[in-house]
Amino acid sequence: IDAAGIVPAVRRANDAGALVFSIDDSPVGGEVTATVRADNVNAGIQGAEEMIRRLEGDACWSDSSCIVLELQGGLNSPNGLDRSNGFADTMAAMAPEVNLIQRPTEWTADMAADAAQNVITQNPSLDGIFMASELMATAVNAQLNRANLGASVGEDGSVIRVAIDGTPQGLELIRQGALDATVSQPLNSYATKIAELITLVKGGGAIELGEFDDGRVIETPVGPQYQLNATLVTIDNVDSDQLWGNLIGK
Questions:
Q1: Residues in CB range of 123: below 8 A, 6 or more apart
Q2: Measuring CA to CA, which residue among 163, 174, 171, 170 is closest to residue 69?
Q3: pLDDT per residue over 89-141, tens digit each?
Q4: How far apart, in whole angstroms, are the C-alpha atoms of residue 106 and residue 129?
Q5: DSSP calls for 89-141
Q6: Between helices 109-122 and 137-146, what is the axis angle to 10°?
Q7: Whole-angstrom Cα distance, residue 209 to residue 236?
Q8: Cα separation, 98 vs 89, whole angstroms
Q9: I need a labelling partner for 203 at 20 to 30 A (CA). Which of 6, 86, 106, 180 fits?
């Protein structure tokens, strides 16, 4: 919740010889045995790749006139910055002729709605919207409907909508044709991976850097960080029992 505020407690734990593990974000100081979070850069990359794949089927692609709005999360947070960098850098590398418009939202639906309304007014031929979080999707869809751009996925005139999170609400929007795709965070793997790493370290093992089947481990100033792979979700796999959004209440 507060990467700076937790530092004194982390340092007290370090002094006492207690191992410190963190989920979703790392403290900005002290020593952490391991942090487990999603690979948010890769989540943004997957979002961009899916956006491009769908744009390639639109008329705008052939005449290089595609316009995409990126609704960013909080750029003062690692997750928001990583998702934006992954998405924007991939768009620039793979689709440099796409006009990418970026707007900050600070993770709020109200700011996302305002940004979407303004951009739609100025660009009524908008082709795609990438949302750093599904919490913006309902408000953004309301703006599209208000501008008569709310066609369902696959229908003529549909604005491509791609997001990140994999919440039950986001999965339902995909089923309803109100969201093309989302990138599901591996939330159900956070605690199990932490437990696995605790067992490893307490048993005398070491956390190795590098690429693994379920993600990668990188070094950070406070300790190793295990970044778990996210999963692209479309109508084809939205009902999978491997998605955390389908496990709620079961």
A1: 67, 69, 101
A2: 163
A3: 999 999 999 999 999 999 999 999 999 999 999 999 999 999 999 999 999 99
A4: 16
A5: HHHHHH-TTSEEEEEE-TT-HHHHHHHHHHHHHH-TT--EEEESSGGGHHHHH
A6: 30
A7: 34
A8: 12
A9: 6
**Beta strand 67-72 pairing with 231-233:** unpaired
Strands (E), the chain: 21-23, 34-38, 67-72, 99-104, 128-131, 160-165, 181-184, 210-212, 215-220, 223-228, 231-233
Among 187, 188, 189, 169, residue whose Cα is nearest residue 179: 169
**What's the pTM value of the predicted model, to 2 decimals?**
0.93
Beta bridge mates, 206: none
Q: How far apart (Å, rounded) are the C-alpha atoms in residues 18 and 222?
A: 15
124 CB-near residues (< 8 Å, 6+ apart): 147, 149
Q: In angstroms, rounded to a whole number, what is the distance separating the alpha carbons of residues 151 and 157?
A: 6
